[in-house]
Design goal:
The protein is α/β, with parallel strands linked by helices. The protein folds into 2 domains: about 160 residues, Type I PLP-dependent aspartate aminotransferase-like (Major domain) (Aspartate Aminotransferase, domain 2), CATH 3.40.640; about 130 residues, Alpha-Beta Complex (Aspartate Aminotransferase, domain 1), CATH 3.90.1150. The radius of gyration is 20 Å and the shape is globular. The structure holds pyridoxal-5'-phosphate (PLP).
């Protein structure tokens, strides 16, 4: 936010990890929530324009589950209204569309390397930007503004990644292609076996892309015999820990719910998605037996 001098209001999605909106509030910026697209669960570009005011300075979409946002439509709106675009790309490591890396869009893309992500350094992340002067600015902000032994150019904090985390990440990079390939396999098996189950909807891939299969989200719909929470509990009882990711909506947390854009009638797709979503276990160490067991529990109920 400081690198781009963002102030006022920023348009964002309520359907994300709470960090997305916290990054705004923490910097004294008001989030303005806009509903999501029912197919990708990403910020719906057709609803952005109506939320723009004189205070709007930026758009902060999320490539949710690693599905690329409609980057062309979003940039077109941003250009027309002179807004910055900051992608929360926490889920999007390795994701490409037919124009290359998804991370090259917007003014900044911010990655998370937290332990739960496709590529991780235990803790850490990266910011991707288009030019050297922006990189210099970010480097200053994350290292007390120090540029050499005797020069302090700007105020800054200690936002550096530790050497040990970076070293761990370098080791992980050696195995990343294999890890992504294994995730691809698991994704294909889930899709094959779950698609025919009545009331279970697998989110489709958004157009032509190389995905990272960071998550396997399903929507548990009303024609499934159990509610989403009943299925969640049933799996948990058998030691299968699925996640209601994202639930609750960011807009429902106490520090956000008073914003007028946070009201549920403004966010009907996000509200419905948060009520029905489950993310199933997916990671390179998931055994065939465990994968089979997850599928069997879901299928046996139907
Ligand atoms: C994990 C995540 C974050 C936060 O990442 P940290 O590395 O913990 O800072 C932000 N946004 C989304 C969408 C995430 O999934």
């Amino acid at each position: 936010m400081q690198a781009l001098n963002i102030k006022g209001e920023v348009i964002t999605t309520p359907y994300s990890f709470v960090a997305t909106a916290h990054s705004l509030l923490w910097n004294g910026i008001a989030p303005v929530f806009v509903d999501i697209d029912p197919h990708t669960l990403n910020l719906d570009p057709t609803k952005i324009e109506a939320a723009i005011t004189l205070q709007t300075t930026a758009i902060m979409p999320v490539h949710c589950y690693g599905h690329p946002c409609d980057v062309v439509a979003i940039q077109e709106i941003a250009d027309r209204y002179h807004l910055k675009v900051i992608y929360d790309a926490a889920h999007a490591f390795g994701v490409r569309d037919n124009n290359g890396s998804i991370l090259k869009h917007g003014d900044l893309s911010v990655l998370s390397f937290h332990a739960t992500k496709v590529f991780n350094t235990f803790e850490g992340g990266a910011i991707v930007c288009a030019d050297a002067s922006m990189k210099h600015r970010i480097d200053c902000l994350k290292n007390f503004g120090i540029t050499d032994e005797v020069t302090v150019e700007a105020p800054g904090i200690n936002g550096r990644m530790s050497e040990i985390n970076a070293a761990f990440g370098l080791l992980q990079l050696k195995h990343i292609d294999k890890a992504l390939a294994k995730r691809f396999e698991i994704d294909a098996i889930y899709r094959l076996r779950l698609t025919s189950i009545k009331g279970i909807h697998c989110l489709s891939k958004a157009g032509e892309m190389i995905a990272n299969h960071a998550y396997f989200p399903i929507l548990v719909q009303t024609d499934y015999p159990l509610s989403r929470d009943e299925l969640y509990q049933k799996l948990k009882d058998q030691n299968i820990f699925v996640r209601r990711y994202f639930y609750p909506l960011i807009a429902d947390f106490p520090m956000y719910k008073h914003f007028s854009s946070a009201q549920s009638n403004n966010l009907s797709v996000a509200v419905a998605s948060a009520a029905n979503i489950l993310c199933l276990p997916i990671h390179p160490a998931l055994s065939d037996e465990d994968l089979e067991r997850v599928i069997r529990v879901i299928a046996e109920i139907s």
